[in-house]
């Protein structure tokens, strides 16, 4: 008999994005496409801690209804030196209203938007192989 799913806190991540320098592809048949580079960051949790390496980013699509479709790719490095490729997709509502506020450094309360993602991980580090079998959800 299958067991009931349960949630376990994985980590909290803070990524630094170059919000002032997005690469704007422009209006496409799917919406407004832009790429926001990631310049660094950190993550902390009970079993995972480390830094977000520069070089990733968010291949972002702003749909005509104002919802942002997130497609984020990044490399994170744990405190013990392991490299983990992380990719997540998800949704962020009110993106056009939020971006200028985030760029100005404003902390925006969660109740003002919906931000949910589904992360996936790849690594060659045996101590973190369990991540490649985890079903993860994230809230921003």
Average of pLDDT:
92
Number of helices: 1
Low-confidence stretches: none
SSE succession: EEEEEEEHEE
Task: Characterize this entry briefly.
The protein has 140 residues and is mainly beta.
Characterize the structure shown.
The chain is mainly β. The chain has one domain (12-139): Porin. The protein contains 1 helix and 9 strands; from the N terminus they run βββββββαββ. The model has no long low-confidence stretch (mean pLDDT 92).
Key traits:
140 residues, Porin, nine-stranded antiparallel beta sheet, 47% strand
Topology (SSEs and partners):
Elements: E1 12-17, E2 23-27, E3 32-44, E4 49-52, E5 57-62, E6 68-78, E7 83-92, H1 95-103, E8 115-123, E9 138-139
Antiparallel strand pairs: 1-3, 2-3, 3-4, 3-5, 4-6, 5-6, 6-7, 7-8, 8-9
């Amino acid at each position: 008999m299958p067991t009931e799913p349960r949630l376990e806190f994985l980590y909290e991540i803070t990524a630094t994005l170059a919000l002032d320098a997005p690469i704007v592809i422009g209006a496409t048949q799917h919406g407004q496409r832009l790429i926001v580079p990631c310049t660094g960051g950190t993550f902390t949790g009970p079993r995972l801690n480390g830094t977000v390496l520069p070089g990733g980013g968010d291949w972002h699509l702003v749909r005509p209804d104002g919802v942002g479709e997130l497609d984020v790719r990044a490399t994170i490095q744990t405190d013990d030196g392991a490299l983990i490729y992380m990719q997540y997709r998800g949704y962020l509502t009110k993106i056009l209203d939020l971006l200028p506020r985030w760029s100005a450094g404003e902390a925006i309360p969660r109740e003002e938007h919906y931000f949910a993602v589904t992360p996936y991980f790849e690594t060659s580090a045996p101590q973190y192989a369990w991540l490649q079998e985890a079903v993860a959800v994230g809230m921003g």
